[in-house]
Write a structure and sequence with these properties.
Layout: H1 7-24, H2 32-47, H3 53-83, H4 89-98, H5 101-116, H6 120-128, H7 140-187, H8 199-223, H9 226-236, H10 245-256, E1 258-266, E2 269-277, E3 280-281, H11 285-312
Parallel strand pairs: 1-3
Antiparallel strand pairs: 1-2
Helix pairs in contact: 1-4, 1-11, 2-3, 2-7, 3-7, 4-7, 5-6, 5-7, 5-11, 6-7, 7-8, 7-10, 7-11, 8-9, 8-10, 8-11, 9-10
Length: 318
């Protein structure tokens, strides 16, 4: 079904999906990823037990992801038999459901507003909704740093990785990536509960995100302080525990001219993380700068994909 969509049309559908995301944002009711998270939690509670947790983790991943991806292929094929080329709009709808560009702004802008207004308690509460670190005693700089780091990393997952797999496999490709990424966010922890069970979720996300993460890092570098971003990517990325987040966050911090990483509190204990970027510490205004970097990168990707699609379309050029 995906291969039947002309490449130039797929580029137009990518633009439509981005536009829908920016105009509509997350569905307020019946968000598909929220529903998927509920399903994944139920599977984890049922299967994450016993001695064969690695096998159970593999089974849970397959049961959570593959039926939904296969269903998306089937529904697109069924729609195509009934409505012909109009069914291609289903790819844009799937992309809209998987994208999170508007969501990144909607979650980060209120934090910046609270910090500007001196509402530190409110900023702490809202920041805790988007990061896993403790924020009860976080300073303004700590909260700004946490928000910027979240924007840079989730820009790769919720935006660029989704666009990459949409370009590869249309709407089902975007859906596959986002479902796999969601499972990694839920199960991919190195702790007693998920260390064995979550291995499939963590490894699959690493594989699917490998190329998009490095393209994201390159995008950040091109749209910011390029030399600094490339230098930070080269010297700092390998120190970060995640093979994909390292390049993204190091290049993003360098592109913005900020120093990120360092101390953060998790489960009541301070953790010293590797340094990211170069320059001053983050401020409230940097949340908007980080989102703008992701948004500009999305436009750049759309332009590049459209140009590639146009060049690859037979008969379009004399």
């Amino acid at each position: 079904m995906v291969t039947s969509v002309p490449l130039l049309m797929l580029a137009a559908l990518m633009g439509l999906g981005l536009l829908l995301d920016l105009l509509l944002g997350e569905p307020r009711r019946l968000h598909p990823l929220v529903g998927f998270g509920t399903l994944a939690s139920a599977l984890e509670r049922r299967l994450n037990k016993g001695s064969a947790r690695r096998a159970c983790g593999l089974l849970a991943w397959v049961l959570a992801v593959l039926p939904l991806v296969l269903l998306s292929f089937w529904l697109l094929a069924l729609a195509h038999t009934r409505w012909g080329a109009w069914a291609w709009l289903g790819h844009a709808v799937l992309l809209y459901g998987a994208l999170g560009l508007r969501s990144l702004r909607d979650h980060s802008a209120p934090i910046a507003q609270a910090l500007h207004g001196g509402d530190l308690a409110g900023a702490r509460r809202m920041t805790a909704c988007i990061v896993s670190r403790d924020t009860q005693e976080a300073s303004e700089s700590d909260l700004a740093k946490a928000g910027v780091e979240s924007l840079l990393e989730n820009g790769s997952d919720a935006v660029f990785g989704t666009l990459f797999w949409f370009a590869i496999a249309g709407g089902p490709g975007a859906l596959l990536f986002r479902l796999a990424n969601t499972l990694d966010a839920m199960w991919g922890y190195r702790n007693a509960r998920f260390g064995e069970f979550g291995w499939m979720a963590a490894r699959t996300d690493d594989v699917l995100g490998f190329i998009p993460a490095r393209l994201t890092a390159l995008t950040y570098a091109l749209l910011g302080h390029t030399r600094c971003a490339l230098r930070c990517w080269k010297t700092q990325a390998s120190n970060w525990p995640s093979p994909n987040a390292g390049p993204v966050m190091a290049a993003g911090a360098g592109a913005l001219g900020l120093t990120l990483g360092g101390k953060a509190r998790y489960d009541g204990e301070d953790e010293m993380r590797p340094p990211l970027g170069e320059g001053r510490h983050a401020r409230a205004t940097d949340l908007a700068r980080a989102w703008a970097l992701v948004a500009k990168g999305s436009v750049l990707w759309l332009i590049i994909f459209s140009l590639v699609a146009a060049l690859a379309t037979p008969g379009l050029w004399p």
